[in-house]
């Protein structure tokens, strides 16, 4: 199967949901309340797709074993997990609830989104259906499935506690904010990382990535969303083994615009340039500390995430129009992003 066909599985309806009928006979279904029917239906549909990952890392002369979770996304062996679960891995095995244990290898990992794709060989997997986290609402029911503390196929349920969170990530000298992270009160523990966060339709809307605690923030877990941007990352990891990003070389933060700039642009906030990295695309374009960036390619920018959103592989080597407010007037600069080295 070629890469395009494999990526097609990410949007195809590969898991059917029973639509509310719980496993078992009519008597059992009637005994379950609506909440239980939804949760049990999600579990029945999704559990065969969730793997427990045994991770072996070389430390000195010995292997250190870790654990995590993963979600099958194609029938021919591709599994989605968290990048930090498979970091520095030497050997990897995926075990499913039907008992099959399969060796796996890392196809690609992207620490800046905390997503990774691994692949097993020799067995057909039951792929989960990937949903769309942009449709989630605060208070909506979600179900987490994974292997916390090594307990395979564990299920917790809760609600979406918050949306639009940001989680800092780093790869070498590069840093980035993972955007639109999902906050949930579904109980997560070490080992849940890389597992599924699903909505009531049994669609995977997030990959569990972080637990806040111990000692504070109990009952607060975070998941990388499945949305248009992360689907592109997943496709890139499957096809190329990496995610390419553009780089400007600017350190900045949001700042209210001076009255004259606000009047000229019709907006109240821009990005203040705090530092320009020497020999970077920003330096080459003539950007200076103290400049206020107000637009990129004609689109308003309010904070660094607005710039970050544009810095995908399509921006590498392409001249972009940057509008800045400097010394009391608007100026337009041409900037050519380079590929971010990780």
Notes on the protein architecture:
This protein is an alpha+beta fold and 342 residues long. The chain has 3 domains: 3-120, Thrombin, subunit H (Beta Barrel), CATH 2.40.10; 133-227, Thrombin, subunit H (Beta Barrel); 246-339, PDZ domain (Pdz3 Domain), CATH 2.30.42.10. Helix content is 16%, strand content 40%. The strands form 4 sheets. Strands 1-2-3-6-5-4 form a 6-stranded antiparallel barrel. A 6-stranded antiparallel β-barrel has the order 7-8-9-12-11-10. β5 (101-110) and β6 form a beta hairpin. Mean pLDDT is 85; it is low at 12-22.
Q: Could you name the key traits of this structure?
A:
20 strands; Thrombin, subunit H; Pdz3 Domain; alpha+beta; 6-stranded antiparallel beta barrel; 6-stranded antiparallel barrel
Topology:
Elements: H1 3-8, H2 26-31, H3 34-46, E1 50-59, E2 62-72, E3 78-81, E4 91-95, E5 101-110, E6 115-120, E7 141-146, E8 154-171, E9 174-184, E10 196-198, E11 204-211, E12 221-225, H4 228-240, E13 246-247, E14 250-256, H5 259-265, E15 269-276, H6 281-284, E16 292-296, E17 299-300, H7 304-310, E18 320-326, E19 329-335, E20 338-339
Antiparallel strand pairs: 1-2, 1-4, 2-3, 3-6, 4-5, 5-6, 7-8, 7-10, 8-9, 9-12, 10-11, 11-12, 13-20, 14-15, 15-16, 16-17, 16-18, 18-19
The CATH superfamily of the largest domain turns out to be Trypsin-like serine proteases
| Average pLDDT | 85
Q: Indicate the CATH class of the largest domain.
A: Mainly Beta
Instruction: Report the end-to-end length measured between terminal Cα atoms.
Output: 30 Å
- What name does the CATH topology of the largest domain carry? Thrombin, subunit H
- Count of structural domains: 3
Q: Mind telling me which CATH architecture of the largest domain this is?
A: Beta Barrel
Portion in strands: 35-45%
Total DSSP helices? 7
Structural class label = alpha+beta
Strand order of the largest sheet: 1-2-3-6-5-4
**Helix/strand order, N-terminal first:** HHHEEEEEEEEEEEEHEEHEHEEHEEE
Percent of residues in helices comes to 10-25%
Give the CA-based shape: globular
Main beta sheet: strand number and arrangement?
6 strands, antiparallel, barrel
């Amino acid at each position: 199967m070629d890469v395009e066909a494999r990526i097609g599985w990410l949007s195809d309806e590969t898991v059917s949901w029973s639509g509310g009928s719980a496993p078992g006979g009519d008597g059992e279904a009637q005994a379950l309340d609506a909440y239980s029917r939804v949760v049990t239906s999600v579990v029945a549909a999704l559990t065969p797709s969730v793997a427990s990952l045994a991770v072996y890392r070389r430390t000195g002369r010995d292997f250190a074993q870790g654990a995590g979770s993963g979600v099958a996304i194609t029938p021919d062996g591709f599994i989605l997990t968290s990048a930090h679960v498979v970091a520095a891995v030497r050997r990897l095995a995926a075990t499913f609830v039907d008992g099959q244990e399969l060796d796996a290898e890392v196809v690609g990992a992207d620490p800046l989104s905390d997503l990774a794709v691994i692949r097993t060989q020799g067995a057909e997997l039951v792929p989960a259906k990937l949903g769309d986290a942009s449709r989630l609402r605060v208070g909506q029911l979600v179900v987490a499935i994974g292997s916390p503390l090594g307990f395979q196929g564990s299920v917790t349920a809760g609600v979406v506690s918050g949306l639009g969170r940001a989680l800092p990530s780093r790869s070498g000298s590069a840093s980035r904010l993972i955007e639109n992270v999902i906050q949930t009160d579904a109980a997560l523990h070490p080992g849940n990382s890389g597992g599924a966060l699903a909505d009531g339709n049994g669609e995977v809307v997030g990959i569990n990535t972080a637990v806040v605690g111990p000692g504070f923030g109990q009952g607060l877990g975070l998941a990388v969303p499945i949305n248009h941007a992360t689907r592109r990352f997943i496709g890139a990891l499957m096809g190329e083994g990496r995610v390419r990003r553009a780089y400007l070389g600017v350190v900045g933060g949001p700042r209210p615009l001076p009255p004259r700039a606000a009047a000229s642009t019709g907006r109240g906030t821009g990005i203040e340039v705090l530092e320009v990295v020497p020999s970077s695309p920003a330096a080459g374009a003539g950007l200076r500390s103290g400049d206020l960036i107000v637009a990129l390619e004609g689109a308003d920018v309010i904070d660094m995430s607005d710039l970050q959103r544009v810095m995908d592989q399509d921006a590498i080597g392409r001249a972009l129009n940057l509008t800045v407010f400097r010394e009391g007037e608007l100026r337009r600069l041409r900037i050519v992003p380079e590929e971010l080295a990780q």
